[in-house]
What does this fold into?
Amino acid sequence: MPSGNTAMLVLKLLEAQDMYGYQIIEELSQKSEEVFKLKTGTLYPLLHSLENDGTITSYDQTTDAQRVRTYYKLTPKGSGLLAKKQDEWQAYTRAVNLVMDGGAGYAHA
Amino acid sequence: MPMHDTRPELKQLTDKYIEDLCSQIRWKKAHKRVSAEMASHIQDSSEAYIAQGIAPDDAIELAIKDSGDPATLGLEFDRVHRPAAQWGMLAWVAGFLVLGLALSLFLFDEVGASRRLIFTGIGLAVMFAAYFADFTLLGKRPWLVCFGVVVACWGLFYFMQLWRALLFPPWQYQNITLVFPVVLAGVIFSQRSRGYIGLVFCLLAFLLLSHAAFVAPALSGFVHFSIAGMGLVIITILKGWFGVNRLAGVALAFLPYFLALLFMVFVLQQGSWMTTRVITAFNPSNDPVGMGFISLQIRALLSQAYLLGESPIPQFFPQRWLYGELVLVAVIHRFGWLPFTGVILGIGIFVAGLVAKARRQRSGLGFFVSMAVILTFGVQVIMYILYNLGFVFSQISLPLVSPGGLALIINMGLVGFMLSVFRTGNVAIDPPMRQLFKWENGRVIVSFKR
It folds into this structure.
């Protein structure tokens, strides 16, 4: 999975609710029917760099068991980036599907 | 981070993993955040294994194995975590300093400009020292800092009346009170989740600092702190940090003002100099000692100013005033209203940029400290503009721009401290919130659990 698309998937998950790292890995695996298994080594550096870019922010929250978890939240800038990435992805998949279905040649005829 | 019912050697396994990981991250300040998050991740992951029926010991080993090679992961983090150098903000600060220098050279004499150059040099040293300082120390010992500052100010302001050999003119020492909002920010942060009790403690710190500002050799510092400091308390209440009812909290916060108003009424009957200051702020011509003359002359000058270009100066306007604390009047007089608007717009954009950065801080302390500096900055700007437009007489300076020895140095130090928050705030960690009192659906919930 190319890294730009991982960012898109993570942002999409955070659009629904604020999540902590482990939750993102689980959620992505479950939603993709276990196709996407995010590695720890990919996720956390990605989250931290997205935060540095200002597309997400983080905050610490204490759980009932008095544990501190770092939650991530989508920023307005992040929503904008997600919308853009989603459009690009849709254009891309449509183009791939056109070629794969053999429909692309039709336009030239 | 406590690991549940595990053998010590397994806890050591986690610690060793995190230590190996962190050894690859060159920026030491980032270690705490990364290790806390990774420990939490390993715990989440092992709990999931345990839920699947795997023995706790094996679960931790599996969780660590899943996390991958620590050195590789550490290198990934190292690439992401660098101190965020504040070049853009430093450029803005440099711009204001250059503007201030240019104005003092162009409007004033060379002596004034060279004096200012020396103060700018000292200010730069203070600013960079603060820029590399660790702002989280303020969150660890807030009361010590608060009492230390109050006692130091009481001592200084008392002994100043005794000794005459001073580095700066006595009234300049009131600028020390410009650091009070930052000191208060540390206290607010430490009390943020303690409900009404926390709010009361913050108000006590506010009153204590207010008193130290009140005994300063000029009243402007006190006025400044009572606006900026209270602004900080109100922001905290409105953000819901104290966990109190917003309306009741704000009402409680204004109680000191109500008491101050009563005090004023009392003083008004006594006819002290303070009363005079309050009355002349609204009607300058009433001032018995002639301070109101300044405001009236400023108004006369401004009424003749042009949109662009040099305007005439009123007959009785002493030119030397323009060399001091009336830089904006000097700009309007020499260049016109448009350049004045340009300066104000520049300051406005800078402050808006600062607010945007402060709001993105992940650490609560980082948010409070940067908001405290922004309020200190903003209230000074507003007071200075009002003074320069012929309202309230004030001895506050225009941060970074107007001349003024101690004020310039302290303001530069404060800006440096705020930039140190922006520089390292992304990896700053707040201690866990301790909720003693909670307000839920009109009921107070007390929790003694730590």
User: Anything to note?
Assistant: Chain A has a mean pLDDT of 86. The helical segments of chain A are 3-16, 21-31, 40-53, 76-100, 104-108. Chain A touches chain B through 26 residues (CB under 8 Å).
